[in-house]
Amino acid sequence: MPARTLALPGGARVPVVAAQWQHAYGVVTRGRVQLELRDGTPGPVLRRDAGFWLRGTGVRALHNPGRRTATVRILTPHLEARRNDMISSTDTAVTVRRPHGFRRLAVTGLVATLAAMVVTTLAAALARGAGVDFEIPDGGGATIPLGGFAVVTGFFSLVGVVIAAVLLRFSARPARRFVWTAVALTVLSIVPPFLVGAAAPTVIALVGLHLVAAAVMIPALTRSLRAGPPREA
């Protein structure tokens, strides 16, 4: 099986010549390679060991979104092998298969969300048992119920999972960007408890609960993003 290596320096863009990819199969051997779709919009970011066909897909260029050189091993099967290809391609669109990465992220996110809900609710119950009333004067003097902590934690944890999935799909460095985004959102989330007129113990407890949820979700999702999905296009 004839093969050649295509090197893409950091930030480089290489146009796709259809004739050269008629029967070629590419494998990313180093770095990350992003497909540029036929309308010029950014496509999937392929990572190391990801394989892809480009024949008839309309992908018009390969782009290296990182700073370091990326390499693609281009394989051209012999005619006999082409008839028995185990990997199928279509002539109309790019097919991106990323079940392992997104499935892993979804499962990790769901488990971490449930864990965050349980841990946060238990921490709130312990704080209430220690005398924290969780009364919100600016909310009409209402007291936050234990179930409310679980609901709010679950909602914002799932928002974090969605953010991680978007970064996994579009970012060349999803784990790093997720950490920065999640930390920034966590910092913003601890501001409201200081603005509702609650007593000091309640404010401290609310801030602590935000940090507890973040301590469960951020490491779990970051590890999943760093694992990286095998992708094919």
TrEMBL record:
Key words of the record: Membrane, Transmembrane, Transmembrane helix
Domain of life: Bacteria
A Pfam short name: DUF6069
TM ranges: 105-126, 146-166, 178-196, 202-221
Keyword Ribosomal protein: no
Descriptive protein name: Integral membrane protein
InterPro entries linked to this entry: DUF6069
